[in-house]
Amino acid sequence: MTSLDNIGIQVEAVHGNVRPILNEVLHALDKLIANNETTIIDLAGLPFAPGELDELEETLGQGELSAQLDALGSSRIQETTYPGVWWIEHRNAHDEVVGRYLEITRIPEILSSQDADVCAGRARLGEQFE
Amino acid sequence: MTTVDGRHELDREAERLAYKPPEVRHDKQGDMDSEDRINKAMHNFVKNFNTQTASYLDGCLHCGMCADACHFHVRTDDPRYTPIWKIELFKRTYKRQVSPFAFFYRLLGLKRHVTIEDLEEWQHLLYDSCTVCGRCSLVCPMGIDVAGLISMARHGMFKAGLIPHELHEVAKRAAETGSPLGITPDKFEDRVEWMADEHEVEIPMDVEQADVLAVMSSIEIQKYPESIAATAKILNAAGESWTFRTDGFEATNFGMLSGNPDWQKDATMKLIDAAVKIGAKMIVLPECGHAYMALRWQGANMYGKPLPFKVLHISEYMADALDKGKIKVRKVDKSVTYHDPCQVSRRGGATQAARDVIGHLGVDFREMEYGGDYNWCCGGGGGVVTIKRADSLRHRVFKLKMDQVEKTEADQLLSSCANCRQSFDDSQQHFSWDYTMGSLMEMVAENLEEDNS
Amino acid sequence: MKNKPTVGEILQAKGVSRRGFLKYCATTASLLALPPAMIPRIAKAIESARRPSVIWLSFQECTGCTESLTRSAAPTVEGLIFDAISLDYHHTLQAASGEQAEAARHAAMEENEGGYLVLVDGSIPMGNPGFSTIAGISNHDMLMETVAGAAAVVSIGTCAAFGGIPGADPNPTGAVSVQDLVKDKPIVNVPGCPPIPMVMTAVLTQFLTFGQLPEVDKFRRPLAFFGQTIHDRCYRRPFYEQGKFADSFDDEGAKAGWCLYKLGCKGPTTYNACATAKWNQGTSFPIESGHPCLGCSEPGFWDKGGFYEPLSTGKFGSGAKVAGAAAAGIAMGVIAAAAGRSRQAKFTKEG
Amino acid sequence: MDLLEFARGPALEWAAYILVAGTIWRIVGIVLLKEKPDYSEPRKPAGFGAALKVIWTRAFTAEPFAKATLYPKMMAYVMHIGLFGVIFLFTPHIVFFEGWTGLDWPGLPNSIIFFLGVATVVSAVALLVRRLTNPVLKLISNFDDYFSWFVSTLPVVTGLLIPVRIGLRYEDLLAVHILSVVLLLIWLPFGKLGHTFLVFVTRGTTGMVFERRGAKT
Which of A96, B103, D115, D194 is the most buried (most CB within 10 A)? Predict the structure, then answer.
């Protein structure tokens, strides 16, 4: 292990993606303010260089609100330091990331209680009174 | 079709070497049919192709820059005067007959056969509108010596009997009588004696053994006989053992100019034989440009071996003699500009000699703009001055020269070529121009310091 | 197909909440490389989709494709897709064997006549039917028999798609691809050695959700994944543009993570999604690990010269051939010059 | 075998053979023609050095001709320097030459190569327009001139299209690019593009002949 560690790998950073994404976010925020229009950016299809995703996450930072969802594995829904910009990360049961999105919205849809679940919950609660 | 020499009299009044204008032009010689002429032209084009010419003809890029160097094109904007176009037929024949891919050119018919109409048209391009001045050879980015190719293309034209009337007559007379102006040995002797008397100068003639053989051009003998005296004064002053020879005095070579290698060789061999006979160590060539090309650079090749003597142009001789102190000259209080004869300077390599001589004369020397090796030609070289139908074109071209000279505002215009001189004289008359061409050699002769003689 | 439950029903039966389903749809959209705006449509389609029957045939192959798929098919979101399909025959994965297995295949074919999907990995030997058989049936016979009633065929891996390694020069078994044999069925190729598991599941998901095969390129590869080259989507592309290249595997350029073009990377001519989908649960892809792309998803990749030979290397013949050309040139030159000289001599004589 | 394989393989290979054979054919065919010895007494010794001198000096315009030939010369310079850059300083090309000769040298960033390529094409077009409009060039030009222009400009254009794509696939564009180079290589020894090697012969010959006379070269 020591001999491998001695290989002086110093990967030269590539910053191809961060700025364009931030620019896209900026325009998405404009649309949100003007028309209440939601934008979702799928980060899976982008050719990130090593470390670039972390750079993006650090740039956006962690805002006031953070939520954890447990459905088919855990999911992290984090508002960034830019209100209205949400970092959403879905994981599977093995805690592997299966989807990563930036959602520019007032509240991500997945945080709302869903009609079907509300109905099902209502039914379960109702059973107690039967 | 045949032309008869006798009917054409020399025009002794003209400002240049000329026959009286022919009443009927015969620009075709011999009575060959067209087919024969084409074959003759082609066969004699083909003879000239060697490694050097082949690489030139294969290397042309058709960039057209040679047009910008040619006085005929510059003054007329006629694209046919593009130097490389003038050898188009020569080039085409090369591609079809001898080039590495000649087989394909013939098989696929890629290069058109030369026609008689082509040849007739090209007579104008190869003779009337080219003085073989070689300016184009200096602009060519491929370094192709276009002027050299023109001279070779003329070989085919001559054998096809497609020479401008006057040039052919002059060349023929030179071949027959030894002089383009029909100056016989007797007549030469007369003129020499006359000059010896007139100038009270000793002029050795037909000496059996001499170190230096001096020769003359018929133009000088006929029109500028002072040159004879000047030559004698200089050689005497230098204390040379020298002589003129009646069996070898004619320096001009109209065989070369017109494109007949046989005549060229005859004329050259006369000089060589005479020099060899007297055991000369040197031939001093007169003020004649093409004579320098003919003997200095082509003479040995006509001879088939190195010449057993040196060949110097008179300007080279004078420069050497002045440098070595063999002759001395008085300072001349004048401003002078110098017109370089193409064959001596640009193509001959003796550009510096005239300037050395001028330096000794102590004049206020005013080099023309782009003088020396890039000098504009007088417009009359390469035989052009003999061709009457080319007069208007030649005069048109001369404007370049006039501008070049006038810009110097020099008192005196000099050159070292009798052919240039007569072109200048003719154009001077035509334009009623102020400048009269003088001779560098005569200026030296007039200003020799006597104490040395 | 009548009794098969919809995917929505299956998920519900597994106690998956609506939030979980939305999450599932979002990742499916990602998987299919569809824009997030499509998520509601996907949700609707998935809810009502029914389990299709799938028959998986393995011929001349190394099981790498199945490995690739099953490695990823541990209970992940896309693993659920496989819960949603009915894998009726897969002789590596199935418990049944021999005649029992073949009976299952025939049963599935009959039951789903015209509606089942055939997945094939491995190439088919045409040199001799005995080169590869299953239950005594030659690969060719089994393929033709099975696809006869199929809705579509998906060739999994480069061997099935293009002949792959068995088909490489000198191709001792006479191996051919599925598309060489099957001419009357829609075919989708998912090449790769192995293919990216996500791409395999995406094709199935697409079929499952929308009941149709994805749009393909000229090699019948799904455009969503094979529409761009590795080079186009490679994070090291900027180094290529700047002219920064690794010259060897241990030089400073390699350590700095520069472009691997000069080390033989086939990224510019290879169409695949490795650069974005990545491997090993999204960890990285070969170039990210410092190795040039081999071009495994391209037809004939095995025969396209050395893996470490740069793409723009010309393929010259031996020095001897060049010398031969030179000798021919000399000979022609000599002949041409001789011909020219003889013409000169002839013309000189004629004058 | 797809188009790219064909282009990189047999097409390029045969083009190389034809290039080698044709070049040598042409040179040998010229060199083996009769050569007349020059017996004249040289003014100064002029051998290989004189040839090299003129090979170098004729790359530049003599001052008296500078103004008249400025435009075509500038265009030709841009075209030649551009060609040199795109051919020899683009890394994939260097890799190509390295595979062939074993020699390696540093390349330029692609942006500069792209700029050089565009400059090359612009100058080539300018020269073509000149050839089509200038009376001298119109007269003296023949098929060789236009075809040689075409085959030498085409690879630059096809090369430039590779990053631009115009909706086509990389490997197809690359194949077309290589095939255009194949065309160039095949034509090069036979037409006026032979000046790539003949320039050394013509300039060298003139250098030796005129230097020997002490005349202006």
Answer: D194
CATH number at residue C121: 3.40.50.700
Do residues C221 and C89 share a domain?
Answer: yes
pLDDT 10s digits, D33-67: 988 889 999 998 888 999 999 999 999 999 999 99
**Stronger pLDDT, D196 or C84, i.e. the higher one:** D196
Q: Is residue D113 part of a domain?
A: yes
Residue C149 has phi, psi (to 5 degrees) of -105, 15
For chain C, say whether D38 makes contact (Cβ under 8 Å): no
Q: Which residues, including other chains, have CB under 8 Å from residue C279's CB and lie 6 or more apart?
A: C196, C285, C286
- Taking CA atoms, what residue in B is nearest to D43? B349
Domain limits at C177? 51-208+215-226
Q: Which pLDDT belongs to residue C199?
A: 84
What is the count of structural domains for chain D?
1
- Show residues of chain B in contact with D135, CB under 8 Å: 77, 79
* C217: nearest Cα among C194, C188, C193, C192: C188
Alpha carbons B73 and B65: distance in angstroms, whole number = 11
What is the DSSP secondary structure assignment for residue B6, as one 8-state letter? Answer: G
* Chain C residues within 8 A of D93 when measuring between CB atoms: 312
The verdict on A121 touching C (C-beta cutoff 8 Å) is no
Among residues C86, C81, C87, C71, the alpha carbon closest in space to that of C32 is found at C81
Find the mean pLDDT for residues C214-232: 91
- Write out pLDDT tens, residues B152-161: 999 999 999 9
Q: What is the three-state SS of B45-97?
A: HHCCCCHHHHHHHHHCCCCCCHHHHCHHHHHHCCHHHCHHHHCHHHHHHHHHH
Q: CB distance from B98 to chain C under 8 Å?
A: yes
CB hemisphere CA count around B39 (13 angstroms): 12
Give the pLDDT confidence score for residue D82 in this predicted structure.
96
Query: In sequence order, what DSSP letters do the residues of A11-65 get, joined into one string?
Result: PPP--SSHHHHHHHHHHHHHHHHHH---EEEEGGGS-PPTTHHHHHHHHH---S-
Q: Delineate the domains of chain B, giving CATH numbers in brackets.
A: 28-162 (1.10.1060), 180-321 (1.20.1050), 329-448 (3.40.50)
Cα-Cα-Cα-Cα dihedral sign, residues B253, B257, B258, B259: positive
Average confidence score pLDDT of chain D: 92
For residue A61, give the CATH number of its domain.
3.30.1370.140
Structure confidence at residue A2 (pLDDT): 58
* Helix segments in D89-191, DSSP class H: 91-101, 110-133, 135-140, 143-164, 170-187
Question: Looking at B252-327, which runs of residues are DSSP E strands?
Answer: 282-285, 310-313
Q: What is the pLDDT of residues C282-301, one digit of tens each?
A: 788 999 999 999 999 999 89
Same domain? C250 vs C334: no
**What is the rounded average pLDDT for all residues in chain B?**
92
- Strand arrangement of the beta sheet that strand B335-339 belongs to: B364-365, B335-339, B412-415, B437-439
For B50, nearest residue in chain C (alpha carbons)? C341
Which chains neighbour A (Cβ–Cβ under 8 Å, 3 or more pairs)? Answer: C
Residue C154 pLDDT? 94
Residues of C in contact with B98 (CB under 8 A): 340, 343-344
**CATH value at residue C280:** 4.10.480.10
C267 lies in some domain: yes
Instruction: Report whether pLDDT(C269) > 60.
Output: yes
Mutate to test the interface with D, among B51, B301, B320, B351 (most CBs of D within 10 A): B51
Both C67 and C144 in one domain: the answer is yes
Q: How many CB atoms lie within 10 A of CB B65?
A: 23
Q: Which of residues 53-112 of A touch C (CB under 8 A)?
A: 69, 71-73, 75, 90, 92-94, 96-99, 101, 109-110
Its pTM stands at 0.85
Is A7 within the bounds of a domain? no
Q: Which two tokens stand for residue C308?
A: 């470490």
